[in-house]
Amino acid sequence: MSYLFWRATNAPPEAFKGQPLPYKDSSLISNFFLNWAGPALRLAYSRNIEANDLKDLSFGLQARTLGDKLESNYMKRVPPSLRSERYRAEENVADKPDSAYDQSLFKAIYFTIWKQWWWMNFTKLLGRE
Question: What highest taxon heads this organism's lineage (predicted)?
Fold first, then answer.
């Protein structure tokens, strides 16, 4: 009995070029079982994956987007006197003293990626024996 999934076939070069990563658009069940990753796993089984084979990241997963979100979350935690000009006019903070800001980079990172972090740990707990 052979499994079609594991049968190695010659995959074309640049198999997923120009296709978006379906992680954000797939359903909760598909994310849970990683059904969207099946074609990439088949490709990896048939040959080595190269940079041209990878799918394009969606806007929300790109480093520039996450970096801007992290910077914004961190600047909300910094006193207005220490902020750059770009972030001073974001909110009216005249009533809050500088001691009300904690300047915690850890909290800024957490609030940037908290959904992915909790989902990763939830699935990690489910996978334990």
Answer: Eukaryota
Is pTM beyond 0.70? Reply is no
The domain locations on the chain are 1-58, 62-129
CB contact at 8 A, 102 and 119:
no
Q: How far apart are CA 55 and CA 24, in angstroms?
A: 13
Question: Taking Cα atoms as reference points, which of 44, 34, 37 lies closest to residue 6?
Answer: 44
Residue 20 phi/psi, 5-degree rounding, is -75, 155
- How many whole angstroms separate alpha carbon 80 and alpha carbon 61? 29
Find where tokens 């990626």 sit: 113
